[in-house]
Amino acid sequence: MSLDEDLQGAVARGELTAYYQPQIDLGTDRIVAVEALARWEHPTRGLLPPRDFITRAEENGLIHEIGDFMMETGCESGAGWHGHGLDLEVAVNVSAVQLTDPAFLGGLSELLETHAMPPELLTIEITESQLIEDIPMVATRLGELADLGVGISIDDFGTGHSSLSRLQELPFTELKIDQHFVQDDDETRLALVAIMVGLIRDRGVRVVAEGVETLDQLRRVRDFGCERAQGFYVSRPISKSGIDSLIGA
Ligand code: C2E
Ligand code: MG
Ligand code: MG
Ligand code: MG
């Protein structure tokens, strides 16, 4: 109860912050993108992870405010790096609840312009489980977003129990293999993941491996044909200034 009350006005009080987790290109080992991840600096409970407040925010409507903050912060950072001559892509997580807002698209397009953020440097991530709830609505919204020139990523792929053929109705440019598959040790399941990655890549979609925690896992996802990797083995999510020093901005 009290967490819900605390969340009211948390954005206005400056308690929300974006951490960033790097993604490396598995061909060059260079950092090519970062994912923005919400953190709440709670006045008494300390730094809270998204699982403590995102679902609640989706239920009580505060997700619009939090989502707008994360999108603006991500675009501001991305535009700043771009201004330094560093074309680091920025991925921002978006809830399906935000997509239902008729003002979302206009707001985003205005944001890109205000911050002079090149749309091709922004990727919007939506979890597979949220995507499949209402495919026709989501397909329309994502089509409009794709027209803006931003990338569209299917997050936590493999956990939403959707079929690839249904997902193909959506204009996505990237697919993130969920960490459970990346960390799996079962040979048969791994063989299936490898086949899946091949099929997806054949369609010109970029495949990113999430939750890479060890060198073995990094080698494996590279062998699968994943183009990018993200995970604790590369770096944990860190503050904006942490990223700045990592990339020399
Ligand atoms: P996600 O988008 O799949 O983000 C990846 C999550 O996996 C992050 O958790 C990250 O810290 C964690 N992770 C990264 N590498 C590793 C690894 O090697 N091992 C393990 N065990 N975990 C790893 P985080 O930051 O707690 O975020 C959890 C989820 O909350 C995100 O999953 C995303 O779905 C949601 N989320 C985060 N920020 C936002 C936001 O601004 N808006 C919305 N709508 N959802 C958000
Ligand atoms: Mg994500
Ligand atoms: Mg994920
Ligand atoms: Mg997740």
Automatic annotation (TrEMBL):
GO molecular function, one term: cyclic-guanylate-specific phosphodiesterase activity
SMART domains named in the record: EAL (SM00052)
InterPro entries: Cyclic-di-GMP_PDE-like, EAL_dom, EAL_sf
Every EAL domain range: 1-249
UniProt protein name: EAL domain-containing protein
